[in-house]
Design a protein that fits this description.
The protein has 174 residues and is an all-alpha fold. Helices cover 66% and strands 0% of the residues. The chain contains six helices and no strands. Helix 4 (103-135) runs antiparallel to helix 5. The termini are far apart. Mean pLDDT is 74; it is low at 137-148 and 159-171.
Length: 174
Amino acid sequence: MLKTFDLVLIGVMTATATVTYTIKHRAELKVEEVHRLEAEIKLEKDTIDLLKADWALQSQPNRLERLVNAYNEELKLQPTESTALVHAKELPMLKSEVPVPDVTEAKVSAKGATEASAKGATEASAKSATEASAKGAPDTKGAQATAKAQPIPMPAPRGEAEDADQIETGSVEE
């Protein structure tokens, strides 16, 4: 006769064996996946090595010179002049690299521009008011457009003038 406790132990052992087998099966699948990925990585590395060797073969100076001589009539190639080479610092900046104007400088510039435009607007509004009163219609749009149309000056990028005269030479790194 089997007691209830024996049946519970048999159930626990069966569940444990099932869980152990499931974990073992998943681990074997992961090992297979790791081996597959390692094989793919090795294939990619071999392909990269082959492409580097091919590039070295294709860019040999002797081969390029033969090609230039063979196709010189069609291509009309000329040597690069030393003045045509520029350093990366001499190239224009990307929009994302343009320095953001200092908030205090922008406020001072905006305040000066606003005061200057306000003086001009006052003179313009007085003149247009005189003309408008002569015509019989008030004109407020001209004064507002004059006050709003003044551009805010942007500060010049720092360090470009000094760097433009200095050209660094060096090898290109991969």
